[in-house]
Amino acid sequence: LRRLGLGTAESNRRMQAALDVLWPLAGQLFSPQPGDALLNVEGYWPDLNELRQAWSGVVIPALEEAGLGETASAAGPDDRRVHSAHLDTLLADMQMVARADEEAVW
After folding, report:
1. Which positions ≥6 away from 103 have C-beta within 8 Å?
2. Hey, which of 13, 78, 82, 94 has its CA 20 to 30 A from 21?
């Protein structure tokens, strides 16, 4: 992160451009799902707000050290079912590998 963020102007620009695309989706990591509250009460699942704060406490300083910044104005979807346009390509690539050998057992 630091190597690219603090490297050339081009590497910083590319890293920031990627961050600008992906940062709005990062909030999905902390969006509650059905059953999360019960799992939290039972001690099986962390409190998502506390988890988000801990994550932010590590990620944001790392971005700042690398000369990068979060895209504060970009609020992404809270629903984990909303994906970037890149998911279709990624899934197609993964399925191609799985289908390469019809007799393969996974």
Report:
1. none
2. 94
What is the sign, positive or negative, of the torsion defined by CA atoms of 70, 75, 80, 83?
Answer: negative
* CATH architecture of the domain with residue range 2-99: Up-down Bundle (1.20)
Domain boundaries, given as residue ranges, for the chain: 2-99
Non-local (6+) Cβ contacts of 75 within 8 A are 24, 27
- What distance in Å separates the CA atoms of residue 80 and residue 74, rounded to the nearest whole number? 16
Half-sphere exposure of 99 (CA within 13 A, CB side): 6
* Per-residue model confidence as pLDDT tens for the chain (106 residues): 999 999 999 999 999 999 988 888 888 888 888 898 899 999 998 999 999 999 999 999 999 999 998 765 556 666 667 777 788 888 888 888 778 887 877 6
* pTM reported for the whole predicted model: 0.69
What does the longest C-alpha to C-alpha distance in the chain come to? Answer: 49
